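PT: before anyone asks, these are the final sequences, not the draft ones from last week. 968 residues across everything. Please model them as a single complex and drop the result in this thread when it's through.
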Amino acid sequence: MAEESVLTDDFIRQLIDVGEVDILVGLATDNNAGTVGPILRTIQAGLLKSFPRERMVIINADGGSRDGTSELVTGASVDDMRRAYSGHTLRTLHSVSTRYAASPSSQAALRTILAAADLLRAKACAVISPESTNIEPEWIARLLRPVYHENFDLVTPIYRRHKFEGLLMRNLVYPMTRAVYGRRIREPYASEFGFSGRLGSDFLARDVWEHEGARFGREMELVIGAIAGNYRICQTYLGTKERVERQAADLVPAMRQTVAVLFSSMDTTFSFWSDTHGSQAIPTTGPESEVSLEPVRINRKRLKQMFSDGVAELEPVFSSILSPSTLSVLKHIASLGEEEFHYPAELWAKTVYEFAASYHKSVISRDHIIQALAPLYRGRIFTFLVENRSGSAEDVENNIENLCCEFERSKPYLLELCNGGK
Amino acid sequence: MPERSDALWYKNAVIYQVHVRAFYDSNGDGIGDFGGLAQKLDYLKELGIDAIWLMPFFPSPLRDDGYDIADYLSVHPTYGTLEDFKAFLAAAHQRQIRVIMEMVLNHTSDQHPWFQESRRSQDNPRRDWYVWSDTDSRYKGVRIIFLDTEMSNWAWDPISKSYYWHRFFSHQPDLNYDNPAVREQMWEVMRFWLKLGVDAFRLDAVPYLVEREGTSCENLPETHVIIKDLRRRVDEEFPGRMLLAEANQWPADLRPYFGDGDEFHMAFHFPLMPRMFMALKLEDRKPITEILQQTPEIPPSCQWALFLRNHDELTLEMVTDLERDYMYDAYAQSKTMRLNLGIRRRLAPLLDNDRRRIELMNGMLMSLPGTPIIYYGDEIGMGDNVNLGDRNGVRTPMQWSGGWNGGFSTADPEALYSPLLLNPVYGFQAINVSSQKRTEHSLLSWMQRIIQVRKSTPPFGSGSIEFLYPANHRVLAYARQLGNETILAVNNLSSSAQAVELDLRRYKGKVLIEMFGRNLFPRIGDLPYLLTMGPYQFYWFRLRKI
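LR: through. Structure below.
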C-alpha cells in the first residue's frame, strides 16, 4: 500500500495521466542539469530499443533544482505533441518530474520513486544515477530485463572499475555483506539497480521511512531486505562506472550510507543472518568485464599517516569498541614504518566485526562508531594498495576473494560478540 | 430517386459494403443474388445507411472473388440478370439509397475475351491491350503484392510464348493503359453502368494502371492523367456521380489522387485503420493522432473513406515493421489468421467480441474526418472462419435468423456457396438480425442509433478537426467544427476507467450536451474540464451557447 501523502497533488495528477505502466525508470536529481540531458537520452534510447511495446515512464524525484533539471526531464517525453526522440515509437513515453516534500536526501527521492512505482503498478523498475554520464542504452535493458522477463526481484550492477576504485565496497561492504548474509553481491550499495514492483512495494510498506536515524543508504537496505526476504536476486555487468573524484572528507558520509546501514540492518535481521552459513553465488548476466589496471596516483603515505594519527587520537574510543588484543595489535602496526606496515585480512575482519558488535550494542554513539572506523579503514586500504600495486586483474580478484573468505571464516566470532561476549 | 443535385452527398453519407453473393438468396440455389439484395433493402434503410457498395458481380471465373472480371457489361448468372440488377437499382433509389459498384480498371481475368484474343498471336489487334514482354526482366524491383502466392509480376503465357505483366494474381493480366483504345473502352464500360443509374464507382487498384521502367510502377503521373480524364467525362455527362479510389498508400502519396478536386472525390484512408486497432490495444492515442497529423489537407469537395473492416485482410502494408509485428502478436497470434501482409479477421473476433470495444471503434469510425463504411454483418457482430482459404473466412453468408441456413437461403446447407458459422459464440443461432431486432440494447439497435446521430451531425461529415491532446494519453479527444456548430468527441482507449482534464477554455461559457442521452454537462469555465470515463467509453458532446 503506497504512502500517498509523500506525493504532491500535482504529482498525483501527473501519475493519473501516466496510468498503469510495465516499466519505470527513476532518476533522483538535485541540480544535475549539467549531466542529466545525455543521461535522459540514453534512458530513452534504452527503453525504446529494448521495450518498444511496454508502457513506460521516467520518474524524476528532484530535490529542488534551480538549474532547469526538471524541465530537461519533462522535455524527454515522447508523445504525439513532442518528438524528443529521433526514431519511431509505438507508444507514448512519459517523463515526469516532481519535487519531493522533504529536505534533499536520497531517502526522500527513493521513497518518491517507490511510491510512484507502487501507484502505477510498475512491474519492473530501475534507478539510474544522474551522475552516470557514461551510461549506455544497454544498461537499461540489463537492469530491467531480468526483472521483466525472468522474474528476478532485484538486479544489482557489477561495474567495470579500476583496481583501486570502489575500495570501500571491495574491502568492507562486499566482504561483510557476503559473510553476514550469505550472498555474493558485488555492489550491495549501487547507484544503479533494478527491482520488481513486488519488492518495491514491500520495501515501501516497511516501517522504516519515518525513522530519523537512517536518512541515508535506503538503497542498501533495499538490497539487504531483498536478501533477508528471500527475493530472487541477480547481478548484471554494466560497464565502466564514471570515476568521481572523492575527497578524504567524503569517506565518513560514504560509510554512513553503507557501513552504518549494514551494521544497523543486523539488528532487525539477526534471526536470518545468524542462521546463514557460508555464501552463495548470485546468477550473473551480461558480458563480463575485468578490472582496469592503468597506473593511478594515490597518496599512500597520507593514508598511513591518517591511520597512525587516528589510532593515537582515538585510543579511548577504540578501547570501548575493540577487544584489548585487537587494539594492541593495531597500536603495534601503527608504530611501524611504511615499509613494514601491514594490516592483514584476518585482523581487518576481526576489527570490522568488533565495530559491528559495538554498533549492535550501542556501546557509544553509533555515529561515533562509524566515524572511528574511518582511520582504521585507511590503514587497511594502505595495505590493499601495496598488496595489489603490481597485481594483475586476476591477482586483485584473488585478494578480494581471500578477504571475503576471511570474513566468512570469522563470522562465528561476530555471532559470539553479538550474542554477548566481547 | 436520390437527390442528384446534392453533389456532395458522399460527404455526409454512411456506406454499407456488401457482396451480392453473401447477403440473401432469393431463388434457393445457395448463392445470394440481386433479387435477395432487393428484398433486404428495407433492412438497410432501417439501419440508416445512405449507399450500398457492391463488390464485383460481373461474370467471372471467381478465382479472386469476382475481381477477375471476364465480362464488364453483364451480371454473373448466379447473381441474376442485368434486368435483376436494374430492378434492384430502382428499388434502392426508391428508398433514397445510392449504389456504388466496383470497377476493376487495372486488370481483367485471363478468361476475358480481350485477353484470349490478345494471347492468340503477336499481331492480334488486341495484342497491345495487355502488357507483354519477351523477358521477365522489365520493371525490375517492382514489389510483389501477393507475396504468399506470387513469385513475380510476370507470368509466362505458353500460348503466345511471352510474358505478361500482372500486379495481382497471375490469372489477372494488367491492361495496357498506354493504349488509347483500352482507355476508351474502359470509359465506355463505366458509361454503360452510369447510364443505367449507378451512383458511384469504387475504382480498384488505381495506383498500378501505368508501368514505366526504373520506377515503382505505382502512382505515376501518367496514371493521374488517366484519372483526370475519367473524372472530366463523369462530371460532364453524369454530374453528381462519385469516384472512390482504392489505393493502399501513405496519406502523402494518396493526396495527388484528389488532384485539385478534379480526380477522385473520395479515397480510402488505409493507414488509419490498422492504427485504430493498434491504439486500442496499446491503450494509447499516439498511432491515431500521428497518422492524422501526417494526413494532408484535401480539397473541400473531397472526402476520406474510413472503415474498420472490409472484404480483404486487415492490411498491414502501411505500417512499420515494428508496428506490423505488434499487430500480428496482438490480433493474429495464430498463423492461420494471417494472409499476405495482413490479418483476415472480422471486427467482432478482432475485438474479442467485447461490446464496449466494438462500440468505441464504431464511435471513432463515425466521428473522425471521413465517410464511414460498414462491412456487412459487422453491424450485428458477425464472426469469421479462419479455416476457409484466402479471405473467404470474412465472406460467409449474412446471418438473418436462427432458422434454416441462418435465414440466408432455403437451399440444402451443402449447396451454400460457403459454410455458415456454426460455433456457439458467432454461429447464426447466436448472432443474427432477427434476434437483435427484438431488443433495443442489441448491437444492431445501437448501430442504428449511432448512424442516426452521425447523420444528424453535419460537422462529422464536413467539419474541421482539432485534436485536444490531454495529458492522459489513453484518451483521444477532438473537436469537429462546421460553421458555428462544434462537436466534442472524447474516447477512452483504455480497458480501465480514466480521469481526463480537457483544455476547453476556447469554448468557455458553452454547455456540453451529451448527444445520445441529450443530458447536460457542466458549463465550461476557466479550469481544465474534468471528465471521468469508464473503460472503452466514448462521449459525443454538442457544445452550445445557452
